[in-house]
Amino acid sequence: MIQFEQLYKKVLPVLQSKMEEMKYYEYDGISSEDLWNFCIQKKWRKQKVEDLRVYEIVETIYAIKPSEIVSHFQIQQFHSANWFSDVSQEELQELLKPKSTNEG
């Protein structure tokens, strides 16, 4: 779901232009919605998006470096990944049980 959909539609040509630039530099896996959500979550997180002027939004979008958005999505992947999804409950308990020490 796109937040601030009217504003998104207004700046969609700018987002698409930025996407073309990113494709030129071979960053293909990012959509205009991803770019928009990145701006909302990272660039404007301390601001009211509805109070931003269109030129400020355009300036922010054009100033984004491809490495910024790639890093953001990599960090999101690390936070959302379930590292133990392929491990059964028994295997997980076996992995996490305390190591026994046999002194003797």
TrEMBL record:
Official protein name in the record: Post-transcriptional regulator
